[in-house]
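S2.1 Query sequence (Surfactin synthase thioesterase subunit)
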Amino acid sequence: MNSPLTEADGLWIRRFHPRPDARVRLVCLPHAGGSASFYFPVSRSMPEDVDVLCVQYPGRQDRRGEPLVDSLPALADKVHQALLPWADRPLALFGHSMGASLAYEVARRLERDQEIVPAALIASGRRAPSRHRVETVHLRDDDGLVAEMRALSGTNPQLLGDEEILRMILPAVRADYRAAETYTWEPGPPLRCPVTCLVGDDDPKVTVAEAAAWSEHTEGPFALKVFPGGHFFLAEHQPEIIRLITARLEAPVRP
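Output structure tokens follow.
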């Protein structure tokens, strides 16, 4: 069965391994500067009953010519609308770093506007929305932005050494950092969906305590899993994280 997407909405979603008969859809939201292809290994590894939807933000890869979105609420509005045609079966949300904050805001919109309670929200490498830090990476010059990307070890070093590629990707990276760093949580009803938070024990961007505070943002079940590693711990623990996601989605899901 094909989802009734419009051409515009179709720009937002990548299905690397379509599973039209799946019982649940896993929506994967990238980190700042990331793209849908970051989640190709997740898509490939999911069982046949999970349809993986990888979100592609504007301003990168095949969307490089589109206007950037540097506000997280505005980005959440757009992703939320793009997902509605896929809500004919349960949706679970997985986001890393900025993608975790975005997943939370998309879940809020689904619950508030459509009474759609996600099957799960899995937040990786991000402090709870109510835990604010003053961060100004988006205000740095290009060298400072590249230094941050190198420090977090989430970008291929070959790309960081290619000036032509850097010129192409830095505007999108800066816009994403601006969206993530200027995001301010607005109090409201807690989510009703289950929330799982994943965090590295040596992540400079989030402490274990800040990650544990995700429990305050849901009335549903909450779980915290701490991994050895830094901000991109998930690259080092991919098989275990795939198993964890699969186990979360094997639980009964809401229609």
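The radius of gyration is 17 Å. The chain has one domain: 7-133+185-250.
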